[in-house]
């Protein structure tokens, strides 16, 4: 199926096999496709407007360059970009991106609102993504359900959200455009976007709050025409149903206060979502008999059971770093530790994991040859492992609670981007550790 843009056929490199249309917007069409060279599914965004003007070219290049500089588990990843100049008079830019295996939030909400727990998980992911974006000096400016992609909608599994579409992103501190009503989507604009004020991170926080309220209720907070919707938020706060768990309702209210200075920052919002999730999990768990914990120098989770979350994170690490395997090991090297390793060559990999845990470093490190390096020599007997990259896992207090590592059967040099990707995933494991601790504390407190 050849992609089209504005009625004209767009010519892509032969490696990309287009399958079907995923979605259409005002400026682009997104296709499901397959990258035959790397044997992976991709999404290809083809801009409908030809780059026959300097302004349009700048806008399209802007999105490609913004995405190229961002790498985070809750952001859609850019793989490739190019220009189809088969028609010199009407060249078209296209972006090749990660294809997410689920609908966007807008599509999902046609089947009804999300559960409070799903909304809370979504809030965790999107707060992480926005904090990463803001730390790099960018505002998204167009957070809406269509720009939030979901990896699963099954009620018994952890919902994952990814933020997409940076076509109108701008630098922090920029003033709202004169045409902000048409640049963003009216239903999700912040009050300062409506009024043409200076835009800071709190503007994205407000828009995210409105999106999460809609996810929880299935309803747009400010319906109506563009003008009605835009100006309604200047005179009233969004309605948050009393049926939501109290902490979840509180954080959504804090994100959607009308004054930017009164809104809670992303870091606080994320912490509140984490507490809300712990309370919801505890409320749905069977009663347990509280046991007074023995005093310890520092908290560990040495006896943590195996879990799909760790398997999922190690799988992502292996795919992103193009490595055959990865593992997580948690605990204290001087006490009992739990190693989450692949079943194949489990004994060797568990021994290697414990060796990695014993290396007392606060930053990432690599091993060119596990058989020769003194930190790992003798751990591996039969497993086809030669090199590895290791990243410490830190909890919310900055204590090292384990390591995340990827393994390769061949000698290789892991680059700076590999290290940054592994560090992001190690942070994700650290958040999971903190969440499990919070759940245990909530369960314990409930029984006192």
From TrEMBL:
<dbReference type="GO" id="GO:0004674">
    <property type="term" value="F:protein serine/threonine kinase activity"/>
</dbReference>
<feature type="domain" description="Protein kinase">
    <location>
        <begin position="16"/>
        <end position="277"/>
    </location>
</feature>
<dbReference type="InterPro" id="IPR017441">
    <property type="entry name" value="Protein_kinase_ATP_BS"/>
</dbReference>
<dbReference type="InterPro" id="IPR011009">
    <property type="entry name" value="Kinase-like_dom_sf"/>
</dbReference>
<feature type="binding site">
    <location>
        <position position="45"/>
    </location>
    <ligand>
        <name>ATP</name>
    </ligand>
</feature>
<dbReference type="GO" id="GO:0005524">
    <property type="term" value="F:ATP binding"/>
</dbReference>
<dbReference type="InterPro" id="IPR003018">
    <property type="entry name" value="GAF"/>
</dbReference>
<dbReference type="InterPro" id="IPR029016">
    <property type="entry name" value="GAF-like_dom_sf"/>
</dbReference>
<keyword id="KW-0418">Kinase</keyword>
<protein>
    <recommendedName>
        <fullName>non-specific serine/threonine protein kinase</fullName>
        <ecNumber>2.7.11.1</ecNumber>
    </recommendedName>
</protein>
<dbReference type="Pfam" id="PF00069">
    <property type="entry name" value="Pkinase"/>
</dbReference>
<keyword id="KW-0808">Transferase</keyword>
<keyword id="KW-0067">ATP-binding</keyword>
<keyword id="KW-0547">Nucleotide-binding</keyword>
<keyword id="KW-0723">Serine/threonine-protein kinase</keyword>
<dbReference type="InterPro" id="IPR000719">
    <property type="entry name" value="Prot_kinase_dom"/>
</dbReference>
């Amino acid at each position: 199926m050849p992609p089209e843009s504005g009625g004209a056929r767009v010519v892509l490199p032969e490696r990309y096999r287009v399958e079907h249309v995923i979605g259409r917007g005002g400026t682009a069409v997104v296709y499901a496709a397959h990258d035959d060279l790397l044997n992976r599914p991709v999404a290809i965004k083809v801009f409908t407007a030809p780059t026959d003007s300097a302004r349009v070219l700048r806008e399209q290049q802007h999105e490609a360059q913004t995405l190229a500089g961002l790498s985070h588990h809750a952001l859609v990843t850019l793989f490739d970009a190019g220009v189809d100049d088969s028609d010199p008079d009407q060249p078209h830019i296209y972006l090749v991106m990660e294809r997410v295996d689920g609908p966007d939030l807008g599509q999902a909400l046609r089947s009804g609102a999300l559960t409070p727990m799903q909304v809370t998980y979504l809030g965790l992911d999107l707060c992480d993504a926005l904090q990463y974006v803001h730390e790099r000096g960018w505002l998204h400016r167009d957070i809406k359900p269509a720009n939030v992609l979901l990896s699963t909608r099954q009620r018994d599994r952890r919902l994952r959200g990814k933020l997409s579409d940076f076509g109108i992103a701008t630098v922090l501190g920029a003033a709202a455009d004169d045409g902000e009503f048409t640049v963003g989507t009216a239903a999700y604009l912040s009050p300062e976007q409506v009024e043409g004020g200076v835009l800071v991170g709190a503007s994205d926080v407000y828009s995210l709050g409105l999106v999460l309220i809609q996810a929880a209720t299935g309803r747009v907070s400010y319906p109506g025409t563009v003008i009605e919707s835009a100006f309604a938020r200047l005179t009233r706060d969004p309605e948050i149903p009393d049926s939501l768990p109290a902490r979840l309702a509180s954080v959504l209210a804090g994100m959607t206060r009308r004054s930017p200075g009164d809104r809670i920052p992303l870091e606080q919002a994320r912490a509140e979502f984490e507490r809300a999730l712990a309370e919801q999990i505890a409320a749905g768990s069977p009663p347990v008999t509280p046991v007074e914990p023995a005093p310890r120098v520092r908290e560990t989770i040495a006896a943590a059971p195996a879990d799909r979350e760790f398997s999922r994170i190690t799988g992502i690490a292996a795919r992103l770093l193009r490595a055959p395997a990865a593992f997580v090991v948690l605990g204290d090297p001087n006490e009992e530790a739990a190693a989450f390793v692949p079943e194949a060559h489990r004994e060797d990999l568990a021994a290697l994991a414990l060796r990695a845990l014993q290396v007392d470093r606060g930053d990432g490190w690599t091993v060119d040859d596990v058989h020769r390096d003194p930190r790992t020599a003798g751990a591996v007997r039969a497993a086809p492992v030669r090199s590895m990259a290791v990243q410490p896992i830190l909890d919310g207090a900055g204590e090292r609670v384990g390591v995340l590592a990827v393994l390769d059967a061949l000698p290789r040099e892991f680059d700076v981007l590999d290290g940054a990707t592994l560090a992001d995933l190690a942070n994700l494991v650290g958040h999971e550790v903190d969440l499990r601790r919070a759940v245990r504390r909530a369960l314990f407190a409930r029984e006192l």
